[in-house]
Amino acid sequence: SLELTRAAGGGRKGSLLDTIDRTVTGAGARMLASDLSAPLTDRTAIDARLDLVAHWADDGIGREELRATLRAIPDVARALARLSAGRGSPRDLGSLRDGLARAWELRERLDRADVPRLLTDLLPALAGHGALIDKLTRALVAEPPVDASNGGYIAAGYDAALDDLRDAGGMGRREIAALEIAFRDRTGIATLKIRHNGVLGYHVEVPARAADPLMANDSGFTHRQTLAGVVRFNAPELHEVAMRVTQASSHALAAEAAHFEELTALALASARTISATADALARLDVASANAQAAVECDWCRPHLVDHPCFDVAGGRHPVVEAAVARSGARFVANDCALDQSDRLWLVTGPNMGGKSTFLRQNALIAVMAQAGCFVPAKRATLGLVDRLFSRVGASDNLARGRSTFMVEMVETAAILAQATERSFVILDEVGRGTSTYDGLAIAWAVVEAVHEVNRCRCLFATHYHELTRLAEKLSALSLHHVRAREYKGDLVLLHELASGPADRSYGIAVARLAGMSPAVLARAKSVLAKLEAGRAATGGLAAGLDDLPLFSALVEEAKGDPLREALDAIHPDALSPREALEALYRLKGVEER
Fold it and tell me: CB 470: neighbour CB atoms within 10 A?
């Protein structure tokens, strides 16, 4: 539900990974996804990653040079994986050669005294492999092909016997070219050509209109094939030369294949150290990419502490902020301060007001911080989280016979069973999928359990305003709400978090924003008035509904509607176009009043 590496609709677009990824290599992108999927819980290891990010964030020139170098390095990990699986090609060996050589050069540039400890630990992995690099450099051409079947990837001078075979094949091809000229002179056919294919091998090809002289028994040519426009022949002289060329070529291909197997085995013998080099390159890419994102988006370095707390000033949701920025608007940042004495926040307010965004952004800040990233905030002091739980969104699993409410209860039960004092939990609208009384009772009990039993840091969003009464007896629970105002009948959502409970849910105002019809909204207002009057008088939620008129009574209520009265006074058939336009403007004025 936090959409760390995949969005809710499927695919990477719109996920946290898609928003913050600034990596320039495939291996770096894969490592960043792994970091977000498995954040660390070791403070020393997290700080080491953050130190490296801070180093590249402060050194803009060095960061750009590093990213330019990494962008030019082949994907060593993928090349090694294909070779290990038996699906490698000469180009994969070339990728290993180039990647390892450039990694060594990068180590020489980064080997300085004033570097973070993690970088010092990574540098040795970038060096080594000298014998393998030298072997691959001497053995392979500069740009090895993907397809090994045609050969041509072993460099000249590496194997003298192979060079001799290639020379023999080249000499034979020159003889074939000379034969072509001789055959043209002998037959007088200027369009005669010697060609090659996989079925006939080398053969003589002439246009069909010129083939009759070669059909004669004493021509010295043997007919092989007739096509629509050409006729193909063989000749004893051509056959003899072709045999030498074919044998030399096949032996050369076999020799190259043997060298390919030898070089592959040599690379796989160093697979472990090559993987370490690939991981070091990927870690450098992730650190410099996180630094790039931090500089671009104005993120801060989180300060990690051992005691349970969550103090974020000016926190933002990175994905929503990026989407809002594309539309030219500004994301409204909010603070969050949880500690042992104030560890459970009950957040109320209208739909679309930003409650779910607030919950998710703080969960994402915890994930990003412990993955080794800077976080979207002005300041962040975070106690390490051992487990992060998120019960947000509505979904069902019909294939397993689970309704939306059942899925919600299963997930909530798992949270209550597993969350510890060092956990971080976000709960959004627990209990909404059943009757009002049942839902309120479940939400009430869950809040008490989180406060008294789990004692974890928790953000709990709800529309059950009755839950705010728990603040009177739960010492570590505090009330907060997202601000909203009604202005001239319209709801203005401020997306700001404030202390205290919300004055109301503004549900009807949100329904108006969604385009609900005026008749339905008017009916909803009348039902709400009865409900609130009954609850005030008797304390019962549904009190006062027995004497509520049916929906059809809206027709009676609408008789005093000035807009309808103005419409009834209009006789369309008697109006000129200008009078009709003026009547329309009058009606609009009545509606605005």
Answer: 18
Residue pLDDT, tens place only, 220-243: 899 999 998 999 999 888 888 888
Q: What is the pLDDT of residues 385-418, one digit of tens each?
A: 999 999 987 554 444 556 778 888 999 999 999 9
Contact 371, 410 (CB under 8 A): no
pLDDT tens digits for range 511-547:
888 888 888 888 888 888 887 776 655 555 544 434 4
Pairing mode of beta strands 310-315, 334-338: antiparallel
Quick check: 523 and 384 in contact, CB under 8 A? Answer: no
Of 5, 363, 288, which is closest to residue 119 (Cα–Cα)? 288
Q: Tell me phi and psi for residue 96, to 5 degrees.
A: -60, -45
Residue bearing tokens 């180039």: 98
505 vs 97: CA distance, rounded Å: 64
| 187: amino acid identity, one letter | T
Residues 299, 368: Cα–Cα separation, whole Å: 11
The answer to whether 300 touches 375, Cβ cutoff 8 Å, is yes
Amino acid at 366: A
Q: Which residue matches tokens 């009990």? A: 445
Strands 344-348 and 477-487 come out as parallel
For residue 32, give Cα distances in angstroms to 35, 82, 281, 292, 340: 5, 22, 12, 14, 32
The partner residues of 96 in beta bridges, in order of sequence, read none
Hey, how many other C-beta atoms are within 10 angstroms of the C-beta on 389? 21
Q: Identify residue 180 by its one-letter amino acid code.
A: E
pLDDT of residue 546: 45
Cα separation, 96 vs 73, whole angstroms: 10
Q: Which residues contact 71 (CB under 8 A, 6 or more apart)?
A: 24, 25
Residue pLDDT, tens place only, 161-185: 888 887 777 777 888 888 899 999 9
* Rounded to 5°, angle at Cα 208 from 206 and 209: 105
Residue 540's closest CA among 530, 552, 555? 530
Q: How buried is 285 (Cβ within 10 angstroms: 0-12 exposed, 13-18 middle, 19+ buried)? A: buried
Pairing label, strands 379-383, 303-305: parallel
Tokens (6 digits) for 535: 């609850």
Tokens matching residue 9: 């609709």
What angle do helix axes 160-187 and 236-269 make, rounded to 10 degrees?
160
Torsion of CA 404, 406, 411, 412, to 10 degrees: 110
Here the tokens at position 275 are 């993987």
